[in-house]
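User: structure tokens for this one?
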Amino acid sequence: MVSLPGLGDQSASRSRLVSRLLLPVKVTGFTDLSAGKDFSDKLTELVVKVSGGYSLSSNGGAGWSNYSIAMHNSLDVKAFADQTTWARVARVTGQTNEIDASAQ
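Assistant:
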């Protein structure tokens, strides 16, 4: 069985979830770990608000993070970027949002 954050235990939903919208978000400009955590918390709040169920994973290093968000609801990538109000969206390329967290 698969348990996805925001969906609970719904193994049959996993393929539909990933096929709906897979949104990569690349973030640079974190000044410290606290800034990275604050960004992640705000991103999670936005995803919960618009997703209809989601799975979010991330990896990162000094000053950057990559997020992969699978959402149940279809959402225009630009519309998602427009709701990222706490940092500067540097570019939207294909399905990828690139964000500069230093420009908060």
